User: What shape does this take?
Amino acid sequence: MIDDEIERAYDWAIILGGTNDLNMGRSAADAWEALKKVYAIPLKNGTKVLALTVPECGNCAQVPDTRRNKLNDMVLKHGAEDL
Assistant: This one.
């Protein structure tokens, strides 16, 4: 049964972002700015965010470890109050 009158809020949003940004040559800082905007959407609606770091990618030759590590450091150090 679907009731269009009922809004269902999510408790958690799990966000893994940044891999494609880094693979397309974007800087860690640019990817971080985009991720902060993505995180803000569920947070402003009362949903908690589980922000995942960018994993190693065997097929992402264009992503240097230093750039991935820099973005991951930004993800790990942020808090909801920083957004």
